[in-house]
Amino acid sequence: MLDIGYALSNRFPDPPQADYRRADVRALRYDLFCGDVYLADTEADRELSTAWGWVPVLDFAWALCDIVERLDRNPLGARAAEPQYAELDFTESTDRLLFERRFGWVDIEAEWRPVDDKPLSFAHTELRREARDFLHDLIADLTDLHDDLAENPTIWTLQSRFPRTA
Question: How far apart are alpha carbons 9 and 32 in whole angstroms?
Fold first, then answer.
């Protein structure tokens, strides 16, 4: 089972003058809500995680949802034998998460891990569901911390673009 999580950083707090209601896409994706993220296979007790403290957590959730959709562009879907690739790069680093979908499964590797580490592997449908749940749960947590964020039109658009799945 896939678990996606985060921790906000104390070392890189949001600026006290931040106007969450009017924050633009760039600020929401890259300047606010820094911390660390992880993807974990709870059955195999393995995870890919950052320990840098500066990863833009909302951007990670947003990019992960984008990647899951990009990996689903082949009209054959889960029957597609040809691999489909995507990557998530971390802005302040050369490190990336690499995604490869073949049939209905997605392998996820982290470039900062040893080369002989096995990738995490999840069903594409599970990855889609968990990525969207993570995004919505993260937004709920962030709006609990910053009430004005709930009034930001970019957040409304993001939630409607990636609704929760059953």
Answer: 11
DSSP assignment, residue 14?
A: P
pTM as predicted:
0.94
Q: What residues does 39 pair with on adjacent strands?
A: 4, 48
Biggest distance spanned by C-alpha atoms of the chain: 51
In the chain, the DSSP E strands lie at 2-8, 34-41, 46-49, 55-56, 84-89, 96-102, 105-110, 120-123
From the list 55, 30, 41, the residue with the least C-alpha distance to 112 is: 55
Q: Please, what is the angle between helix 153-161 and helix 124-145, to 10°?
A: 160
Query: pLDDT tens, 38-55?
Result: 999 999 999 999 999 999
Residues β-bridged to residue 2: 41
Q: What residues in the chain have per-residue pLDDT under 50?
A: none
